[in-house]
Specification:
heterodimer; A: 241 residues; alpha/beta; 31% strand; globular; B: 463 residues; UDP-N-acetylmuramoyl-L-alanine:D-glutamate ligase; Protein-Tyrosine Phosphatase, Chain A; 2 domains; 9-stranded mixed sheet; 6-stranded mixed sheet; 16 helices; 35% helix
């Protein structure tokens, strides 16, 4: 069995240790004897929309986000839409999460259109949300660290990934964190996210492998280190939010 | 003589300092804080009359080592630097250093102000003092919860530089595109340093996306040679912006476990002697080059400079070597991906198979976001790790990072508590062997504190 992972704009959108998410996906597949190939997809280069089973899209600096936004307004964006329509799973963190939504409304100037693949809208906020983040989800606890000024609001098609226990999450108002729509998951959780939240990594791996290999049941792994990291992070978050 | 407000603020700070010293507490930021509360312009007032002026050393990595090297150079030249040696590098730390070296009337007992400045504080400090020279070692992303984005930080530093008096000399890293592009914003002179040995470095920028784009036009950068992270021989593929000519250049570098031999070149061939840098690692070659260039900005004779650098000793946690019960312990401070990768490269250059004590904390001074460990190149380190004891407030994140980097589980021990972690790590090393300690700032303070209690190192603030 093999797995194909596309890392979108790794040169411009990988700022808060987001690389750890790709490492976690690849290792957890390899530990189950699944062969893994990771390909970078970057601005100005044609994307092979048929290739990936799984997309990862991280956060960037403002400058990087501007270049990526412009690229996604062209053929790059069409390719990403075709990937998701073709059954690829996707994990989006922070900036990538915002760009997958309908639009980003800056403090001044016209709204910047997003890919429209997630039913969410984001507007600029004044205060930056920086700190530890813990959310409860139906599949398990989500731990991480958030660092964003955007406020994201979910439409009816998108379901929250979880409920905030510590931190701010999507917007600091409705206690929701992240979004799920089909096989697309967006979150504000850096940390890196997946190494400490192995249940989320395995959910994405299951979806991704299904695209070309049919339904697979993933062999359970010994997640003692991952659980210990999640436990410690949650304790620290409660003591020092 | 300083004005009366500065004199009063000086006295108040000194009283605070005396009180702390009498109660057995050293190395705190409180005296400087008290002084700045009373007189926000204290630093400018206290440094105005210094005969050799003020030098500021800033940047993400290497500023403590560079400032200390430059301090040794200044002393070798017969000067008396007033220096925030402990690395307390916010405004209050600078004020604290001035207090410690001033008379009760506020007259400085030195002739040069030499201050390491936190890069996020640099724009403010530049607006408050008129330095003779400003050294910027490099700019990497660091502790995003504190500094936010590198582009914004570079823009703020650039704006402050544009407002500087033309009499100031900038000393800039030519190999760092973000730092080098600060030069043209200054109305005065700039001296550039860089590494020009074609045998040093690879061809692909390391996986850290700090500077993949041109600082001027945002087109992709091309590297003919990468030395460290985004430092190297860079040029823009579109607007033609390119690495500036080097005034101080390492034309040949020979790396070894104990240090490096560097042949210095520049626009005038043979104008410099060879330089011995008694600290391992390419990043220390950069620190030495920054020191040589800064000394030139201060008109210090080059023979004095090379002599002082040749007998330099490592600062707190900067590959500092101490003896613990017959074992050689190397203390390596790590705080961001670029610094971590440079330190790891220095360790692995000599084919070591290190036993590690690795400590990860997430206090403010460490960076509260531990995500950076996933950008650090543990994959390069993993195959060489003989054994690792892991500790700190976020020890489990670090143990998990080692797992994903491929270090087998049986080679990793998670130990809670500084004393217990030191015991376990030292106990695992045979007499005559080496232990490498990798730790973030407050974790290093705690580990070093424990070693000091046992009499192996001097307490930090007496250093």
């Amino acid at each position: 069995m093999d797995l194909r992972i596309a890392h979108l704009y790794p040169d411009l959108m990988s700022i808060y240790g987001d690389r750890g998410n790709v490492l976690a996906l690849a290792q957890r597949a390899r530990w189950r004897d699944v062969a893994v190939e990771v390909r970078p997809y970057s601005a100005g280069v044609p994307f092979d929309a048929e290739w990936p089973d799984l997309l990862f899209f991280g956060g960037g600096q403002d400058v990087g986000q501007d270049i990526v936004g412009a690229d996604l307004a062209g053929p790059g964006g069409d390719a990403v839409r075709r990937m998701v329509a073709g059954g690829a799973a996707a994990l989006l963190v922070c900036g990538g999460y915002q760009l997958f939504g309908h639009e980003y409304v800056p403090e001044q100037g016209a709204p910047i259109p997003g890919l429209g693949m997630l039913d969410v809208r984001t507007r600029a906020g004044k205060k930056r949300f920086v700190g530890n983040l813990v959310a409860d989800t139906p599949d398990g606890r989500l731990v991480g660290f958030e660092n964003h000024s955007g406020r994201t609001y979910l439409g009816p098609e998108a379901k929250p990934l979880g409920t905030v226990v510590v931190g701010h999450g999507n917007n600091g108002e409705d206690r929701t964190e992240g979004a799920v729509q089909g096989r697309v998951i967006g979150t504000y959780s850096h940390g890196s996210c997946l190494p400490k939240n192995p249940w989320l990594a395995d959910k994405l791996l299951g979806w991704a492998l299904e695209r070309r290999h049919g339904a697979v049941s993933l062999r359970p792994l010994d997640d003692a280190e991952e659980r210990a990291a999640s436990e410690q992070a949650a304790l620290v978050a409660r003591a020092r939010p | 003589m300083p004005d009366s407000l500065a004199t009063l603020a000086n006295a108040a700070g000194k009283i605070t300092r005396l009180g702390l010293t009498l109660s057995g507490r050293g190395g705190t930021a409180l005296p400087g804080l008290v002084t700045l509360q009373l007189d926000p312009d204290f630093i400018a007032a206290a440094t105005r009359a210094l005969p050799h002026g003020v030098v500021l050393v800033s940047g993400t990595n290497g500023k403590t080592t560079t400032a200390r090297m430059l301090s040794d150079v200044a002393r070798a030249a017969g000067w008396q630097p007033i220096h925030n040696r402990s690395g307390s590098n916010l405004e209050r730390g600078i004020a604290g250093a001035l207090l410690a070296d001033a008379t009760w009337r506020g007259e400085p007992r030195g002739d040069l102000g030499l201050f390491e400045v936190d890069e996020a504080s640099l724009p403010r400090v530049l607006g408050r003092v008129r330095p003779r020279a400003v050294v910027i070692t490099n700019l990497f992303r660091d502790q995003l919860d504190r500094y936010f984005e590198l582009d914004q930080l570079a823009r703020r530093i650039g704006d402050a530089i544009a407002a500087l008096d033309p009499s100031v000399t900038l000393v800039l890293n030519a190999d760092d595109p973000i730092v080098a592009s600060l030069g043209p914003r200054h109305r005065g002179a700039a001296l550039y340093f860089g590494v020009d040995d074609p045998s040093v470095g690879g061809s692909v920028p390391q996986a850290i996306s700090d500077a993949t784009r041109c600082p001027r036009c945002r087109a992709p950068l091309r590297y003919a040679r990468v030395v460290l992270a985004h430092e190297g021989d860079w040029s823009c593929t579109s607007c033609g912006l390119t690495r500036p000519a080097r005034d101080v250049s390492a034309s040949r570098v020979a790396l070894a476990a104990a240090g490096s031999e560097v042949a210095l070149g520049g626009p005038v061939p043979g104008a410099f002697d060879d330089l011995r840098v008694p600290l391992p690692g390419l990043y220390n070659v950069y620190n030495a080059l920054a020191t040589v260039a800064a000394a030139r900005a201060l008109d210090i004779e080059r023979a004095t400079v090379t002599r002082a650098i040749g007998s330099f000793r490592a600062a707190f946690g900067r590959l500092e070597q101490v003896d613990v019960a017959g074992r050689s312990v190397r203390l390596v401070l790590v705080k961001n991906p670029a610094g971590f990768n440079a330190a790891i490269a220095a360790l692995l250059e000599t084919g070591r198979r290190p036993r590690l004590l690795a400590a990860l904390n997430d206090r403010d001074a460490d960076g509260r976001d531990v995500s950076w460990i996933w950008d650090a190149d543990f994959e390069s380190l993993a195959p060489s790790v003989d054994h690792a004891v892991v500790t700190g407030l976020r020890s489990r994140d670090l143990a998990n990072r080692l797992k994903y980097a491929g270090v087998p589980r049986e080679r990793v021990d998670v130990v809670d508590g500084w004393a217990a972690a030191i015991d376990r790590a030292v106990g695992g090393v045979p007499r005559g062997g080496e232990l490498v300690v990798l730790a973030t700032y407050t974790a290093m303070l705690a580990l070093r504190g424990e070693l000091a209690r046992r009499g192996h190192v001097a307490p930090f603030w007496e250093d």
